[in-house]
Amino acid sequence: MSAARAGFIGLGKMGRPMALNIMKAGFPLVVANRSQAVVADVAAQGATAAKTPAEVASHAELICLCLPMPSHVEEVVLGPNGVLEGIQPGAIVVDFSTIGPSTCRHVAEKLAEKGAKYIDAPVSGGTTGAAAATLTVMVGGAQADYDRALPLLQSVGKKIVHAGPVGAGAVVKLMNQLLVAINLAGAAEAMVLGTKAGVDPTLLYETIASATGNSFQMARNFPDLILKGNFAPMFSVNLLHKDVNLGVEVGREQHVRTLLSDLVLSVFAEARDAGHGEEDIAAVIRPLETLAGIEVRAH
User: Is residue 169 within 8 Å of 163, Cβ to Cβ?
Assistant: First the structure.
């Protein structure tokens, strides 16, 4: 059986390698993006270029989105020349964006009016996982839609989880992001404090890395980023601030207190407002370094 025709809208740092992996898996692919240079690049590798999301939707059975903000998803799907204008009955929108569950449900309802389907499928694993097709994909949607999209999902991810109905994938991803932010902010605070108290930061990191305070965020952010003063963005402060804000909104909707998440939202807002929003999330340490009068760097 031939592979379903796929579309991809949003060819950024995550979307571009994911789109290439979908093509490598044998899916005919049509692509669109606000910046045309990356469209030309992906088209040169075998995709068909489209000018609008509506054009992508008119040629695809599985229409993938990988966009930064909930407003971008609504614009691309529901706005002028959007997916909704071109989508065919029975087609599925596969939304890899990290957005809130309420936005997922709203978009799904609008697509259902055209006889089309929607699954939220946010991913974790960063640009490295996107390139290697080893992402974790957290899916919300009907079982039948999940089953139809699964071969495509397997072309970008190693662990695919069907979390429940539309919006459930978004909830799982946002809970992950709350923990990313809380763990990173805690690690940053401990490392600044230990360094200020006179301990060599490399020794401090290496000791904690072999002790019970270790975490994925310690390993990701300290040896190659903070200790080297490297804040080039792989995943920005602005984007994690957005994710934490969405997670806190889920807390409000569910009437669950989110004290730590509220606090860490302020910590990331502090880094954003200090001019570090476009830097990597590791830069969340920088305002505290300034306040403490030290830098956590390898000597």
Answer: yes
pLDDT tens for 238-273 read 999 999 999 999 999 999 999 999 999 999 999 999
| Residue 11 φ/ψ, nearest 5 degrees | -100, 55
How far apart are alpha carbons 121 and 172 in whole angstroms?
Answer: 10
Burial of 266 (0-12, 13-18, 19+ CB in 10 A): exposed
Q: How far apart are CA 196 and CA 201, in angstroms?
A: 9
d(C-alpha 297, C-alpha 299), whole Å: 6
Instruction: Give the pLDDT confidence of 125-135 residue by residue, as tens digits.
Output: 999 999 999 99
Q: Distance between CA 188 and CA 22 in Å, rounded?
A: 37
Tell me the angle at which helices 15-24 and 36-44 cross, rounded to the nearest 10 degrees.
Answer: 20
Closest CA to 138 of 103, 173, 106: 173
Indicate which residues carry an active-site annotation: 173
Cα angle 172, 177, 178 (rounded to 5 degrees) comes to 100
Q: Which residues contact 218 (CB under 8 A, 6 or more apart)?
A: 183, 187, 205, 208, 209
d(CA 213, CA 289): 20
How far apart, in whole angstroms, are the C-alpha atoms of residue 66 and residue 143?
Answer: 22
- pLDDT tens string 101-122: 999 999 999 999 999 999 999 9
Residue of 173, 186, 272, 263 whose CA lies nearest to 221: 186
